[in-house]
Write a structure and sequence with these properties.
164 residues, 6-stranded antiparallel β-barrel
Length: 164
């Protein structure tokens, strides 16, 4: 279990809403070699008004309505810590309008410089990690995604055609 008081690397399955469901009119976003898909998000029971975070997604299949993805969650300045665990759902929004859902399968804490925090080897199956800020949580916007190594989603993920 990880408390999101700083940036988190997450991976899981993203499902994009169709235009009829209120999702993106242009359909699922297409990943780009140079840019990640960036948007806002929140974790229920919070809402877009009281629990907004930034999200950057990459390594998802172009044009697929349902696809594996990796991302970075960055809490908005001043928001309280939120629990992020495998199985939780992140609502992806553009503004306050939901456009997709990311079901989290893996969570990894990121250090302030964007590198993964490796917990010490332990014999217990579940590791609890928490970042205790000195004065206030670090605030980084979605350009934290620029620290990722460059790789395109279509390099190794089979796409599921949109069938529109």
């Amino acid at each position: 279990m990880v408390m999101m008081t700083g940036s988190l690397a997450v991976s899981g399955m993203v499902v994009w809403l169709t235009p009829q469901q209120g999702g993106r009119v242009s359909g699922p976003p297409d990943p780009d070699y140079d840019y990640d898909y960036t948007a806002t998000a929140y974790l229920p029971p919070r809402t877009a008004e009281d629990g907004q975070a930034g999200i950057a997604l990459r390594r998802f299949a172009p044009g697929a309505w349902r696809t594996p993805a990796e991302g970075i969650l960055v809490p908005a300045k001043g928001n309280r810590a939120q629990q992020v665990i495998p199985g939780c759902v992140v609502v992806i929004t553009e503004g306050v309008r939901p456009v997709g859902f990311l079901t989290v399968e893996e969570v990894q804490l990121l250090a302030p410089d964007g590198t993964p925090v490796v917990p010490p080897a332990a014999s217990v199956p579940e590791v609890v990690a928490e970042v205790a800020p000195a004065t206030e949580p670090p605030y980084r916007h979605s350009t934290a995604a620029a620290r990722w190594t460059s790789r395109h989603a279509s390099d190794d993920v089979p796409s599921e055609p949109a069938g529109v």
